Structures are given as C-alpha cells and as structure tokens.
Amino acid sequence: MSLGQYAVKRLLIAVFLMLGVSVLVFSLMHMTPGDPVMMVAGLDAPPQVVEAIRKEWGFDQPVYVQYFTWLRRAARLDFGISFTTRERVSDMILARLPNTIKLNLAAYALALVIAIPVGIYSALKQYTFLDHAGTVVALLGLSMPNFWVGLMLIITFSLTLGIFPVFGMGTWKHYVLPSITLGTAQAAGLARMTRSAMLEALNQDYVRTARAKGLAERVVVYKHVLKNAAIPVVTLMGFRLAYIMSGSFIVEHIFAWPGIGRLAINSLYSRDYFVVQGVVLLSAAMIVMANLIVDILYCFLDPRIRYD
Q1: CA–CA separation, 170 vs 164, rounded Å?
Q2: CA–CA separation, 249 and 279 (whole Å)
Q3: Using CA atoms, how far apart are residues 256 and 168, in angstroms rounded to an integer?
C-alpha cells in the first residue's frame, strides 16, 4: 500500500468516525433533561404557542428525521439557528473561532518553547541536579488541573500583584495567564517525551558509530539523535494539539475569553441545542483531523512503518 492509498484509507476511517461522533452528540443533547422549546416559549406559554414553536424548529418530527436533517445541514457547515439569539450558529462559531485559535496557538507556542529545550537538556545532562529539577517540575505540571492553575494565577498575578487583567481579551497581557494555564500541562508532557526519546536515541548503535567516526557532539546530537527522536515527539505534539483545542473550554470560561469554548458552556446553560451540537462537532472534527495529519506525518518520518 502506498502512502497515498494509506492517506485515503485513513480519511475514510475519519469520515466514519465523524458520523459516529455526530450520532453521539445528537443523542446526548436530546437526552439532556429540559425542553428547549419551553425555554424559548416560557413556562406559562399556551399549548398552541408551544406547538407552533416546536413545529417551527422541527421538534415535531421523529428523532431520526431530526438527526438526518441536522446532519445534512451540518455537512454544509449550516448548524441551524440559535434559540436564544436567533443568529446563525455557523456565524456565531466563526465570529469566536479566531479568538480560540489565537489563544491555543499562543499556549502551544509557549509549551514548545519551554518543552523542547528542557527535554533535550535533561537528556544530555541525565541525572544531574537540573535534570532532576526538570523532572519534578514536569510532574507537577502534569498533576495540576488547568482550572486550578488558572485560579491560582488569577489570585497571584491579577488580584494580588495586579500585573495582568483578570478576564477578557484585548492587549497582549490578556493572553499571558490563559496561555500559561493551557500550556503548563502540554509543556510538561512534551518535555518528558522529548527527554525519553532523546535518551533512547542516544543509546543506539548508529550514535556510537557516529561518535567513533569523530563527528562533533553537536553534529551527532542535532543531525542523528534529534532527527530520530522527533518521531514520537511529533506524534505527541499532534495529540496534544488536538487536546489543547478541546481543553480550552474550561479555561475560556474561567478567563471570560470570547471563544467557542465559552460559547458552548453558555449555550449549554441555556439549552441552546444547535449551538452546542455545532461547537462539539467542530471540535471533534479538529481532533480527528489532527490525528489524521499526525498518522500521515508519522509514516512520512519513519518509512519502516507498514501502511497496511
């Protein structure tokens, strides 16, 4: 099987996976307690008004008809109309998606800038004081939930020291605390993976051969060790990128960041089904696409992998 055939096969699997996600999202929202029609009409609305609204939104149709109608529209990126604002859901998502992407890219860049050098240095200076210190810090970063990190940062740097704003989006200062909150666990995981991959590559025969030939240590590390150690690191980076998109929901809510995560949580409170379905389906699509890209990159970086 060629790389192109493998990519097509993985793409088909991704399509079926998205269909499964769509069924799950639609079913969960319809099993959620509460009637969205009553939220729109009001608890004291006459039955005629309730039925008219139910018919207008298509809730009088059988569930499978509602699902296929929603799926057909979602395939065209038409996720319906919001119950509460009467705006198109796709417009609401598109208006907030750039804010989520900016925040996640800032957090991801922060994680990479910290994790890769720390991981490489820890591997090259194994069992030194700085290696042990890096290990302890990485374990702390992995252990602390991001909502707790966010609250501690707000208390320390916003409410106590007054250095950074508590919430909102505007200047570069607004990015600092949410980026650190999102990037802490990502940096810790990437640093640990980089260190492990580097140590494994350093003990390979081709590294000993390169050193026996008299190559400079910098050439051995950056040309032979780092290139081969990049395969598992790139894989983890892809998974972390997917996670960081889905994991920003809570962080956006804590910092009142105007992204799709905050939109989804606020819509969940008001049982705005179409908005929640649209945001969750879009987030799932991002995760599936990230995994697909990682799988293809993995095969491209390591030709020893059998595509079939």
Answers
A1: 12
A2: 10
A3: 5
Whether pLDDT at 306 is above 60 = no
Burial environment of residue 211 by CB neighbours within 10 A (0 to 12, 13 to 18, 19 or more): middle
Contact 228, 273 (CB under 8 A): no
Q: What is the DSSP string of 124-163?
A: HTTTSHHHHHHHHHHHHHHHS-HHHHHHHHIIIIIIIS--
pLDDT of 156 = 92
Task: Give mean pLDDT, residues 113-138.
Answer: 86
Coil, helix or strand at residue 261: helix
Question: What separation in angstroms does the CA of 164 have from each of 74, 161, 167?
Answer: 39, 8, 9
Short-list 272, 290, 283, CA closest to 247: 283
CB 244 within 8 A of CB 182: yes
> What is the reported pTM?
0.78
Percent of the residues in the chain that have a pLDDT greater than 90, as a whole number: 7
Q: Which one is predicted more confidently, 244 or 97? A: 97
Are the C-beta atoms of 191 and 138 separated by less than 8 Å? Answer: yes
- Which stretches of the chain are assigned E, i.e. beta strand? none
Q: What is the pLDDT of residue 177?
A: 92
Is the separation of the CB atoms in 287 and 18 below 8 Å?
no
- Residue 88: beta bridge partners? 81
Cβ atoms of residues 275 and 89 within 8 Å? yes
The total number of residues written for the chain in this structure: 308
Tokens matching residue 71: 């799926």
Return the pLDDT at 302: 65
- Both tokens of residue 27? 């079913």
pLDDT over 70 for what percent of the chain?
A: 93
CA angle (242 as vertex; 146, 82 as ends), nearest 5: 85
Give the type of residue at 86.
Answer: R
Tokens of 124: 């090259």
Record the tokens describing residue 199, joined without a space: 């140590």
Average pLDDT in the 170-195 region? Answer: 88
Q: What is the CA radius of gyration of the chain?
A: 24
